[in-house]
């Protein structure tokens, strides 16, 4: 009886081949269903200390694209409550801090310009002491240099240069130093998403990227505050028509 059953199913028989193909097809369907539900063949770890820190930065800055999502209902509820509290608070702090920096930079520029004008008028007047003239001239040059640098870097064309430099800093820090190829280095933010392989990124790199995102938000807030205060007439009209920004002048105390 055993000889008849073993003779009926052999490695070369159609029944054995059909059984193997059916089993392989079932495994393929189960694997595809598991991947569709979020399973990965080589699963990493999202929710360690560094991953939680990066998730808090993502939620606080409202950059939820590609961020890991808690799997439990309590985790998602806590994340939603945290976002409701953190996002408005973070935006409020960024707007006020950037506005404070812009106003203080302008006050510093006005102070330096007044000192330069006063020193220029003093140079025109006859001075009996030549030593005073020799010591005041280098200080005037220093104040003029500081005023020029502040005006260009914090108010003028230095902001686009700072944005480009900050992006290149991220390319070097998160791409070139980590020996990534050119495309992965240029598109380094995609690696810090769930689809890009965030679970395999080192913990220290996650923390540094979270700080990098926070610095980018500070730079963006300062740029918007500068546009609101020193925007051209075209930008002002566009903002007023579409209510993009509050372009009213700040009242300096």
Report on this model:
By secondary structure, the chain is mostly helical. Helix content is 72%, strand content 0%. The chain has nine helices and no strands. The chain is elongated. Mean pLDDT is 76; it is low at 1-6, 130-136 and 249-253.
Number of strands: 0
Mean pLDDT: 76
Low confidence ranges: 1-6, 130-136, 249-253
Instruction: Spell out the helices and strands N to C.
Output: HHHHHHHHH
Give the overall shape: elongated
Name the helicity range: over 70%
- Proportion of residues in β-strands: under 5%
Main beta sheet, described?
A: none
InterPro entries: K_chnl_dom
Protein name: Potassium channel domain-containing protein
Keywords: Membrane, Transmembrane, Transmembrane helix
Short description:
The chain is built from 9 helices and no strands. By secondary structure, the protein is mainly α. It comes from Pieris brassicae.
Descriptors:
253 residues
How is this fold's topology laid out?
Elements: H1 2-8, H2 14-36, H3 49-60, H4 73-124, H5 130-155, H6 158-176, H7 182-186, H8 203-230, H9 233-242
Helix pairs in contact: 3-8, 4-5, 4-8, 6-8
